[in-house]
Amino acid sequence: MKKSEPAVETKNLSISWGNVNVLNQLNFKLNDGEKLAIVGPSGSGKSTILKILAGLILPTNGELRIFGEKQTYLRLDQNNPPDVRLVFQNPALLGSLTIEENVGFLLKKNKKLSKKLIHKMVRDCLAEVGLFNVENKLPNELSGGMQKRVSFARALITDQSLHAETRPLLLFDEPTAGLDPIASSRIEDLINKTNDKVKGSSIVVSHVLSTIERTSDKVLMLYGGKFRWAGSINEFKESNDPYVFQFRHGKLDGPMQPKDI
Ligand code: ADP
Ligand code: MG
Questions:
Q1: CA of 25 to the centre of ligand 1 (A)
Q2: What's the predicted TM-score (pTM) here?
Q3: I need a labelling partner for 154 at 20 to 30 A (CA). Which of 21, 73, 109, 117 fits?
Q4: Any domain includes 99
């Protein structure tokens, strides 16, 4: 990876399901080290953007560059995939694997790493998120909150021999949806800590105001397939833009209306 390249750059990125243009010619750039929030009502296409960035689905049209490299394949079909780590809303752990296997399974692909070293790396990452002596447990033996922390440990773990130079792109989809305010604060701290630790760039998709404000330095507002507003987090807090105002205050009046069913 070339250090000066933006983490993400899109040109007219579009995706349609049937004849619905969910994302309609989106252009945005995330510089290396920046922290972006993508906000917008349910169904506006936020998760779809993250899935495209994670290489899980392909856009219908347009161009996507990650760390300067044009992305034309799904991630599993790529020879030299960029270091992109997606943390889902639910922890998405594999139920029949132990916590150690869940966190370390990507490292296992590298035959040069000994079992002992992988064990130590996993233990260190679990300690970073405040979990101890859980390596041999199965996911369903842990509470929901602990499982969520395991999913962050999985995003923290880095195979230095493969990614010595890279600063990963971290993607968080609704990380605090449905959590109480204190649990949300803990997850927000964990997002920032994870980001600092791996020196990454991040995109957080959320409609929780505290999460947007505490984990991002700039904001994009998505609605109707287009970005309607872009600005810094401080501008977001004060803007009287009709989209931002309606979103922040949960108003029924405004440019964003439920689609006719
Ligand atoms: P958000 O994350 O902002 O709530 P999504 O990205 O999940 O929104 O979805 C955006 C829109 O795309 C929704 O209207 C959804 O119904 C539609 N959509 C997402 N995935 C598919 C799919 N595989 N087939 C058809 N429509 C889809
Ligand atoms: Mg979503």
A1: 16
A2: 0.89
A3: 73
A4: no
